[in-house]
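User: My instructor asked us to take a sequence, write out its structure as tokens, and then describe one feature of it. I'm not sure where to start. Here is the sequence I was given:
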Amino acid sequence: QVQLVESGGGLVQPGGSLRLSCVASGFTFSNSAMNWYRQSPGKQRELVAAITSAGDNTLYHDSVTGRFTISRDNAESSLYLQVNYQDIEDRAVYYCDATRLARGQGSRVTVSS
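Assistant: Let's start with the prediction itself. The structure tokens for your sequence are:
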């Protein structure tokens, strides 16, 4: 059974940082390109960042370039999203996604002073 479990969300102040994690199981993680999506209140879900299966290429939404970093550890079947300089517009539920396989339940990030 394919499973993706996110963690690391919570309350962060504007300008703060946090690290989202995703542990994968039920498929060969090292063969799968991975993504982080987010959905903010009243908005459609959007792709935040993507990474190739080997981790040698990444892609970012324009609004997070330079602030967010996607990475992975294939030995641990884990995906990460380092989020720096949080802005109020970054508040959302963040989803870990295995391309064409599955999506996690999400981890909520609240940005507030």
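For the description part of your assignment, you could build on this observation: The two ends are 40 Å apart (CA to CA). Try explaining in your own words what that tells you about the chain.
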